[in-house]
DNA sequence: GCCATTGAATGACTGCAGTCATAAATGATA
DNA sequence: TATCATTTATGACTGCAGTCATTCAATGGC
C-alpha cells in the first residue's frame, strides 16, 4: 500500500518520474538552500524540504544524515566559489605566509557575511571532520603549503592543524556578535602566524596588511 | 486533572512532597549523572531522568534547556574537584606561565579520562559561553593571570581568549581518538605558549617538563 | 485564622526527526 | 523481452523533545 499512490495517478509522461529519479540529491540540496535562505534555518523542517523538492520524506535520509548535514555541501559550495576568486587575486603572491594569511582573512570575512554560514558556525555541533571539510578546507590547504615549503616552523603538524582550525572557528564564533569583525579577524591571523613561528613584528605586518578588493558574488542561487 | 494524582495517593508524611519541592534541581542533576554514567549518554531520555528523580517531566525544563544543558554543571563539578587538587600541587610555583601550562596539561588529561567529558567534547554543539564555563573556566583563569602579570605578551586579550579556548577544545576533540593523548596535549601547550609570546625554546621546555603526580579522584557520586 | 498572590511543578499534548518494511526503477544476463 | 539482482525511493509509523494550560503549595498581608 505504501510507495507512490499519488505519483502514479498521472503516469502520463513517465519521464517525470525518471527525472525525479536521477537527481533527488540535487533537488533536495537546492530546495533546502532556498528554504533556509528564505526563513530562519531552525524553522525549516525536513518535511518542508522534501515537499519542496518533490521527493518522499524518507529519501532525504538516503542522502543526508540531518539538517546540519545538508548544510555542509551548501556552504561548502559557497565557500568554494569565493575561494576561487580569492586565489585568483593572489596569483602573483609567492610568499606562502602571505597567501595563507590573506586568504584566511578574506574567507573569514566572507563566511561571516553569509546567513547560512553564520547559523552553521553558531550551531557547529558537528564532528571535527565536517568542520574540517566545510569550515577549514581552504585555510587548511594554504596552511599546509606554508608548512611544507618550510615557511612555517611547527613542532607537530597534526596537532598544529587541529589547533589552528579550532582557534579559527572559535574566533569566528565569537565574532558573530560583532558589527565589524574585521579587526578581530586580523588579530586572529596575527596569532596564527605567531603560532606558526614567525616573529612578532613580521606576524603583525602581514596580518594587518591592506586587503585586495574582491568583486561581490552574484546571488547564490545558480546551478552548475 | 493534571498535577499529582499518584503523588498524593500516599500523603502520609506530607513532608515528602515538601522535600521534593525544594530540591528538584539537585535531584534531577544526580539522577541525570547516575543514568548517564550507567549507559550511553545518547540513550538516556529526559523521561528516564525525571522518572528517576521522581519529578514531573515538565519540571526538567524549568531548570535545564536540554540534555546538553544538564551535563554542563555535572562535568563542571567534576572539573572543579580536579582543579582544586591541581592548584594545590602548584602552590609553590610562582611563574604564571608554568602554572597555566601545568594546569592545562593536567586538566586536559583528566578531562579526556572522563566518559561524560568525552561525550560532551564529541557533541559540543554548545554556545561559546557554555564551552567557556565548562571546558575552559580554569584554564582561562590561569591564562588571564599570565596576561595580567605581564608574563604573556598578547596583542588583543579578548581575541586571544577565544583563540586559545577554541584551539584547546578542538585539540582535545581530535585527541578523543587517541589511546594516549599525552603527547598531543603537550604539543598543544607548547603552541599556546608560543602564541602567548614565549620564545620557542622556553615554550618547548615548559610544555614538556615532567608533570607532578596527583592522587586519583574517588568515585564521583558524592553529594555536597 | 482567612484570603490573595505567586510561581514551582505537572503531564497531556503537539509536532518533528529518524526508521523500516514495502515497492518501483534500473541494470545485468541470456 | 523475460527473469533476477541491485539500487533507489517511499510514507506510514514510532518515540522523544519541548510546550503550555492547569493545579496547588507556600508565602505574606490583614
Structure report:
The structure is a homodimer of 224-residue chains. With 224 residues, chain A is mainly alpha-helical. Chain A folds into two domains: 3-64, Arc Repressor Mutant, subunit A, CATH 1.10.10; 69-207, Tetracycline Repressor, domain 2 (Orthogonal Bundle). Chain A is built from twelve helices and no strands. In chain A, α8 (128-135) packs across α9. Residues 1-16 of chain A have low confidence and may be disordered. Chain A binds a DNA duplex (30 and 30 nucleotides) through residues 1-5, 7-8, 17-18, 20-21, 24, 45-47, 55-62, 65-67.
Question: Any chance you could write out the topology, listing elements then pairs?
Answer:
The structure is a homodimer of 224-residue chains.
Chain A: H1 15-22, H2 24-38, H3 46-53, H4 57-63, H5 67-89, H6 96-113, H7 115-122, H8 128-135, H9 137-148, H10 157-175, H11 182-195, H12 200-207
Helix pairs in contact in A: 2-3, 2-5, 5-6, 5-8, 6-9, 6-11, 8-9, 10-11, 11-12
The structure holds a DNA duplex (30 and 30 nucleotides).
Briefly say what this structure is.
Two copies of one chain form a homodimer. Chain A has helices at 15-22, 24-38, 46-53, 57-63, 67-89, 96-113, 115-122, 128-135, 137-148, 157-175, 182-195, 200-207.
Looking at how many chains there are and whether they match, the oligomeric state comes to: homodimer
Biggest beta sheet summary of chain A: none
What's the CATH topology label of the largest domain in chain A? Answer: Tetracycline Repressor, domain 2
Instruction: Provide the low-confidence segments of chain A as ranges.
Output: 1-16
Q: What structural class should be given to the helix and strand makeup of chain A? A: mainly alpha
Do you know the CATH architecture of the largest domain in chain A? Orthogonal Bundle
| Overall residue-averaged pLDDT value of chain A | 83
